[in-house]
Write a structure and sequence with these properties.
The protein has 319 residues and is an alpha/beta fold. It folds into two domains: 218 residues, Rossmann fold (3-Layer(aba) Sandwich); 76 residues, no CATH class. Helices cover 38% and strands 18% of the residues. The chain has eleven helices and ten strands. Strand 5, helix 6 and strand 6 form a beta-alpha-beta unit.
Length: 319
Amino acid sequence: MKVLAISMGRKNQNCDIIAKQALMAAEKTGADVKFMNTMNMEISHCRGCGACSAGRDRGKQIRCILKDDYLTLENEVLEADGIILAAPVYSIAPTGQLVNFFGRFGAAHDLAAATEEQKRREKEGLEPLDPRLFKKHYIAYVSVGGAHTPNWVSMGLPNMYMFGMSTVMKTVGQINAYDMGQMTSPVFHPDFMEKVAGLGAHLAESIGKDFEDVTWYGEEGVCPVCHNNLISYTRGKGTEVECPLCGIYGQIAVEDGEVNVSFSEEEKQRARNTLAGLYEHYYEIKDMMNHVKKNLMLHKDDRAELLRPYMEYAPDYKG
Ligand SMILES: Cc1cc2nc3c(=O)[nH]c(=O)nc-3n(C[C@H](O)[C@H](O)[C@H](O)COP(=O)(O)O)c2cc1C
């Protein structure tokens, strides 16, 4: 059982200490451990070129063609059974490096699309996709912020959740580690360090379990699936609310002065980080392609003319 701790913060600072504390606890349970600090890795953003999914559909392995350190981290993530991810909050959300990583990792490795492609390859006797895509991954998130209240880290944990979403990683727990400024160093706070160690041990002990049997470590959160506190409401939708991370709909009510949000079992089963949820999107994309073909045919004669003003208009930045 391999546990990888990733710190996206400064070397030897808060994320490093927290990630290592969780990793040490995982090691005590018998896990093989590895630590990575990614601060100086070059991980650029997705250019939307589509080479990864085009390659997948042509019988190749899923591989980003940008030449930087992304593939090194991707390889370690796929190799691990359990991942501890600690990322600093910059401007209420996780560091851009994390967003760059999952922009390239998530969609490319969408488990519904990969499952369908693997079935096709089996049927046609083609080289199978990397089997590490289909093994169970377990993950624990720690969002690390300097502000004294959670008010300035509101998008930290919710955004981190996207890291394991498209590959259906099982989140075993999370910690919202704000207040690092006044705390000065996490090592000055034994209770906090114990909580972090508990998360690392819980991650290691969860590895190999059926996802339904994994218990949650940390605060419960409003959404029963992702355990985050983001709930969105659209005017005119009555009492319907949505968890914007899981994409599931629920009902909001006020009972005895308390706000209560509930989600049906059916909705929980179609959350985005489940295979069923990903298949919903997979079929949506397939259907979208039919519309694209239809629209292109409809505009085959006037398409060039409609596009021309935008192709010719170029008040570009010249430095
Ligand atoms: C550019 C920048 C923006 C930051 N924005 C926030 C913020 O919005 N909220 C917050 O709580 N902390 C913020 N911080 C503080 C960091 O999250 C904090 O210092 C954290 O400990 C950094 O992780 P590290 O110690 O592992 O490097 C910011 C830090 C930097 C450098």
